[in-house]
Design a protein that fits this description.
Layout (H helix, E strand, L loop, with lengths): L6 E2 L4 E2 L8 E7 L11 H8 L1 H4 L5 H17 L3 E5 L15 E4 L2 E4 L11 H11 L3 E4 L10 E5 L2 E6 L6 H13 L3 E6 L11 E5 L2 E4 L6 H9 L3 E4 L2 H4 L7 E4 L2 E5 L3 H9 L3 E5 L2 H4 L10 E5 L4
């Protein structure tokens, strides 16, 4: 495997080889300008059913929920870093998609959905101000950070739905990884799941939460060949962001309160689950995993 550049600036550790080690530094977005917009299939359902279901966006509730999430990270020893908010980019709070971290630096992505096409501006400004190198920029069509999953060191799963990430974009990213002697496996996913991180999320070394109904059989076979055991999440739970959670390392998980079934499954497997109220963001199209991107994890090899 080619040499990586994982390092530490004056204030921010950066570089990720695996998504299962202890999380030390995370990139979040400031929620000051967050509001509901037609973002994806989840927010579209919310906006279409506001009168029938009584959905109402509550800015102060959203701010409190976001702060509670920050409190959980800090209580678990995670240093929180923030991309600035922008009134023209209300969904940039979902920092998972505008970039992703590698051992060689950050990749700035190309988001397809119109309300988020310029989210790259706040992401790239964060990396510039933090002194973290930008390794690559996605230039071939579209690829978003939620479709990048490191299964284990040197092996990545890349998803594309067509509505967000595209096959062309995924192939560009896969090519970069293969040049660094990584294995990159590309899989199409149904667009209602938006990103692959809704259907596959690593929990600890060799163990993932997986919605098998959302993946083709050959993808399940590939996970098996990689030695990845699975905790199943149902289709019904998955489309409600049931798999949208964050591994903090050492069998600790940040989840959302409405993920009752998934949280119970994880606790039965010995995980310590901290569940936060996050409906103001979930109804707007993203969960706690969408709302973060790991800047650095301790090696888990």
């Amino acid at each position: 495997m080619k040499e990586d550049l994982m390092a530490e600036t004056e204030s921010v550790s950066w570089g990720v080889k695996a998504q299962t080690g202890v999380l030390t530094d995370v990139l979040l977005g400031k929620p000051d300008d967050f509001r509901w917009v037609p973002l994806n299939s989840i927010s579209a359902v919310t906006l279409a059913n506001m009168d029938q279901m009584g959905f109402r966006f509550d800015k102060q509730r959203a701010m409190r929920q976001h702060q509670r999430m920050v409190d959980v990270y800090e209580a678990n020893g995670v240093r929180c870093h923030f991309a600035e908010s922008d009134e023209g980019l209300p969904s940039s709070v979902f920092t998972r998609d505008s970039s992703f971290m590698t051992p060689w630096g950050a990749v700035i992505t190309s988001i397809q959905t119109p309300p988020r096409r310029r989210d790259y501006s706040v992401a790239s400004e964060f990396y510039r101000s933090a002194g973290i190198p930008i390794w690559k920029w996605v230039t071939a069509d579209h690829f978003e950070g939620g479709d990048f999953c490191i299964i284990k060191p040197g092996v990545a799963l890349l998803g594309w739905s067509g509505d967000r990430s595209t096959q062309v974009g995924a192939e560009q990213v896969a090519g970069w990884l293969r040049e660094m002697d990584w294995e990159a496996f590309i899989v199409p996913i149904p667009p209602q799941f938006v990103h692959v991180d809704a259907v596959v999320v690593m929990l600890e070394k060799g163990l993932a939460l997986v919605c098998e109904d959302a993946l083709p059989p050959y993808a399940i076979e590939w996970l098996d060949k990689q030695g990845i055991s699975r905790i199943p999440v149902s289709y019904k739970d998955c489309v409600k962001l049931g798999g949208n959670l964050v591994s903090l390392g050492n069998k600790r998980v940040l989840s959302m309160a409405h993920n009752v079934n998934v949280n119970a499954q994880l606790e039965a497997e010995g995980f310590e689950v901290t569940a936060v109220e996050y409906d103001m963001f979930a109804l707007g199209g993203g969960g706690v995993h969408c709302s973060c991107h790991e800047l650095h994890r301790q090696p888990d090899e």
